[in-house]
Amino acid sequence: MKRIVTLVIILTCTWLIVNNPYTRHYITTLKMESVPVSGKEENTLYHEIESKAANYEVEPIDAKIDPVWKAIPGYNGLKVNVEESYKKMKDRNRFSEELLVYDEVKPKVHLRDLPPAAIYKGNPEKPMVSFIINVAWGNEYLSDMLATLKKHHITATFFLEGRWVKNHPELAKMIVEAGHEVGNHSFSHPDMKSLSSGRIHEEIKRTNEVIEATTGKRPHWFAPPSGSYKEEVAKVAAVHRLGTVMWSVDTIDWQKPSPEVLTQRVTSKLHNGAMILMHPTDSTTKALNGLITEIKARDLQIGPVSELLSEERIMNRDMKQNVE
């Protein structure tokens, strides 16, 4: 009998708690915030986000082989994350474009899916450029170049000759310690186009080994000396898990132009995805500060080759903060 009375009391208390107006209000609030699947159709704001999402979405771009520019990397698309967007807007209870949350959508064809080929530039939709700094000489200018890059919080890709690394290990370490990416620029700076397959392998392999042994970093990119290469060079580089990189804008700094001429030469040909070739020279060192300022003024980001050639999007300030 006592058990039955106890059970009745418990059930009565439970009914009173559940049917308490304060409890019902709390549960209703939780349901509204979580937007359960069964109630989405009834939520005006959620439905508005869902219906407008397509207007803000961008299709991904596949990597491809271009008849002129050879290999061109793909670029992620954008899809509105309706659930997360709703969470950001629900307090205002109105649609706000600046609060949209996006997910990146990868392309179907990636750079790694293409046959080995030289890469001259990044995707033309990506508002970013890279400094390709080939190093086989010019030691006296490296410290000043690194200081300027640090001042602007810029990371570049330094393509190092293997023989140079062997002779100047402290400078190679200094470049890596400053946060820059390092690439393979052959061992002895030969004309790669004229080499046998065996020599191509040797030049690339020896340079990879000395760079990794000296800096602890394994290169992911190969830049043929003087831009001289043939299809076999790109194929051999791929065997060593290296992409072959060229350039789309040349400073021609070996001609010792004035800083003004060098800057004009680059900015007149500047474009999305540009890979800008330079060396540690007096001309480049003096022009670098102004050149970086000009590039930033055009709302282009500057980053290493790996970032430029990645599929990751460069978002505008408002949109970027909402990407999850």
- Full CATH superfamily name of the largest domain: Glycoside hydrolase/deacetylase
Class from secondary-structure proportions: alpha/beta
Poorly predicted residue ranges: 21-33, 35-41, 320-324
Q: Tell me the overall shape.
A: globular
Number of domains: 2
CATH topology of the largest domain, anyone? Answer: TIM Barrel
| Rg, alpha carbons | 28 Å
| Biggest pleated-sheet summary | 6 strands, parallel
DSSP E strands, number: 12
Q: Percent helix among the residues?
A: 40-55%
End-to-end Cα distance = 59 Å
- What is the arithmetic mean of pLDDT? 89
User: CATH class of the largest domain, anyone?
Assistant: Alpha Beta
Q: What's the CATH architecture name of the largest domain?
A: Alpha-Beta Barrel
* Topology order in helix (H) and strand (E) letters: HHHEEEHEEHEHHEHEHEEHEHEHH
Strand content: 5-15%
User: Counting H and I runs of at least 4 residues, what is the number of helices?
Assistant: 13
In words, what does this structure look like?
42% of the residues lie in helices and 13% in strands. With 324 residues, it is of the alpha/beta class. It has two domains: 38-114 and 315-324, no CATH class; 120-308, Alpha-Beta Barrel (TIM Barrel), CATH 3.20.20. The strands form four sheets. Strands 5, 6, 7, 10, 11 and 12 form a six-stranded parallel beta sheet that branches. Strands 1-2 form a two-stranded antiparallel ribbon. A two-stranded antiparallel ribbon has the order 3-4. Helix 9 links the parallel strand 8 and strand 9 (243-244). The radius of gyration is 28 Å and the shape is globular. The N and C termini lie far apart (59 Å). The model is unreliable at 21-33, 35-41 and 320-324 (pLDDT under 50).
